[in-house]
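Sequence only, no structure available. Ideas?
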Amino acid sequence: MRNINYWRLRIRRVLTQIIGNDSRGFLPLAKLLGAIALVALPLIICISLVFRHQQPADNSPIQIALAAPLTGQEMEAGQEMVQSVQMYLDMVNQEGGINGHPLKLLSFDDAADKKVAKARAPEIVASPAVVLLGHRSSSPSATAGKIYGAAHLPAITGTSNDDEVTLENPYYFRATYTRSLLYRIFTIYFQQVLKFPNVSIIQYDAYGEKLAQDFTKAFTSNGGIVKHLWGIDPQKTTQSIQQIVEELVADPDAGVVYLAMRGEEQAEKLLVNIKRRGLRLPILLSQPLSREEFARRFENYAEEKKNPGFFTNGIYATSPLLFDSAGADAQDFGNKYQALYGKLPSYVGTKFYEAATLAVEAIRNAKIQNIVASRTVDRDRVYVQLKKINNRKVAVRGVTGLLYFEPQTRSNINQPVRMAQFYKRILVSAPRQFESVSNLERENLQRELQAGNIIQIDNDYFWRQSVVYTGLDINKLSRIDQKTSSFTAEFYLWFRYAGDIDISSIDFPDGKNTLPNQPIFNPADFIESSTIDGLKYRLYQLRGEFKSSFDLHDYPFDRQKLTIRFQNTNIPSDRLIYAIDTFGLRLPITNTVKENNRYSLQTWTFKGIQYAKETFRTTSTEGNPRLFNTDNRVDYPGLSTTIIMQRRPLVFLIKNSLPLILLTLVPMMTLYFPTNLVKERPPVAVSALISGTVLLVGVYNQLPDVGYTVAIEYIFYVFFGLSLFSILVGILSDRLILQGYKILALRIDLIAKIIYVITMLITVTIYWVAFSERFV
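Reply:
I predicted one. Tokens follow.
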């Protein structure tokens, strides 16, 4: 009771200072406010206790370890690992972490060396981490993995592809494919597609020796011949490289040259010697070298400055991810990473981002206690949850597709192996790929094998997949209509491809021709058809009206994604894929001023453009009895172009909201009416309220029928609230004056003026903080 009486006296003193000493007005008001305080204080205390009870008593961070090469030759890849994992953890933390616990990353340097990794392993085991992400390479993973397994610390690698890493350690998981699968793809690609029965291998250090052994086993088991096996002497690097190049010059039938190494310095010297001798050999890089960062090592050579890509053009590489044929999730990830770190990630950053995704999913489902005494139990719970992610039905959505661990190998064998070639130091999808046959029961296997459309290696079957380099280049946006959620665009569409394939059986599911009763796309209506650099080229010019999913939550400060997409309605994506023509579209776009002038409308500004591979899925049995009891799924390929447009809110506010801004001043001005006009205040505010309602109806007429509140509506709600507030203050002042409390009425008017102005300022501030960048 003492505390309650104390607060009553404090409130009374404050009100006295505000209202004055007019006891006739003060006493009834003070009693009312005192009663409100008596009721409100216990209620506030109870609510605070409830919220405090709902919050976790302990919000200590859940820690995740990362073992990466933070020093040494592979430190760039290590930095990418740290950045990509931290990027994902930051995103989870922004959403509240896991049950109120933030995620914290503990980084350990393994220098890409198995001895260093072995020394670091006990430190990692002794750390509070409940799961480990790493290592970058197979040798450190296999060596340190024994220590992790003995301590029951689950580990996930994004890039170590040696089969033994997971086969010999039940606590190790892999977010990518195995090396045996990778080399099977290599074998059929060079023997069946490029028609090279021979291979020559150049290896360096113990890691390269293991790569050479595994590659030799895969290549020879399918009838291939290893013509040469050279090793670079680490003590005489320059001399041994020169000797190898001389022997390559002497043998015109050396076949494909495979660089079985991860040392970028040695590979750089080797390629410089090969290219300067004028040798035109098919060269294949090991996966650690299959990164654009490696190609950039050559940019300071004189030959490269004159002809970018001189040393690397045409060289084959492999990757789990190629952005020119990647889906929308991968494109979004790449854009966010580039915005944070100034460059696109390689497959290394991508796969460890996905490894972090899998780890967080397991931690979330493990319901760990996260205390020192529960560390062993927590790790075992995370391990159990990782084991449960073992098929497509429980798979985790990643940036490259569905992520899950095949039970026997604990690897993501669903991960595609993409063949690429360097062009101007950029990796692009090779014209031919191989894709696993996912629906054997659908296919006439013998017929497809005889036709050469399907290739068999051991018990695995692969489709020959054609890559169509595609550009969808928008020339002009002539209309954006949020009322119908549509826009009108003119654009070029082109295809570059090898072989005889039906690339033009396409449909625009969200579009229609602006001419009545005419399709948007007619395969025979091309404006150019030719063959350039061994690839067929076909160009179309199209115009249409397209539906899009407009997000109007931020209207009129909104950004809209205007998407034009097409799909092939005839050939499944395991046989054909549309890849983004990076060079034809001159990506990435750097001249935003030029593009802004090209795309902008009177009330819209260009903010960016995205290209992505699309996949359209059907699970229909098509009435075929063979498919009734199967998990039938067919994907059809497509491609999309998305232009991001920002509404110019200042133009909109001046044209559409200036009346509301002026109208907001009307109820406020009633607070300044003299006492002899106090009866006129409510009618004026009511008139403003009605006028505001009419303006809101006008806004509604510009919008489609949406089931949520848009940003501008909240402004109207504030206006309506202030209008009602002015009406109530006017009524209260009128009654007080009639009862002889004129001084009290004037005090209330003063307080009302302050509240009105503060409310307006707070509203403007909130909107400015939320949307100020949209005015740029």
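The chain is about 45% helix and 20% strand.
Hope that gets you unstuck.
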